[in-house]
Design brief:
Layout (H helix, E strand, L loop, with lengths): L2 H18 L10 E9 L5 H18 L4 E9 L4 E9 L1
Antiparallel strand pairs: 1-3, 2-3
Helix pairs in contact: 1-2
Length: about 90
């Protein structure tokens, strides 16, 4: 893993800290989390995306959430963007 990837992983950890505040309590109901990832630089967008989403999913699981499904939409007009919906319990 390059230094850039480690830096992005740290950024993803900070992102999860913010996301965690909005997660619903564990009550056996299904909930969704929508994550927008916009990548406008020349680095490998798939790698950056995977680092961010894997970090979020891993932290959610470590916090006791069950991941039901992950859905992805790719788009963007000004640059590449990923919309990810994580369905969790």
């Amino acid at each position: 893993m390059s230094l850039f990837d480690r830096s992005y992983e740290k950024s993803a950890q900070n992102t999860y800290a913010e996301i965690k505040k909005s997660l619903k309590s564990k009550n056996n109901n299904k909930h969704i989390l929508l994550v927008h990832t916009g990548i406008m630089n020349g680095h490998k967008p798939e790698t950056l995306y995977m680092i961010k989403i894997n970090e979020i999913i891993e932290n959610m699981q470590n916090d006791g959430y069950e991941i039901i499904d992950v859905k992805l939409e790719i788009g963007g007009t000004q640059g590449l963007s990923y919309e990810t919906m994580i369905i969790y319990k």
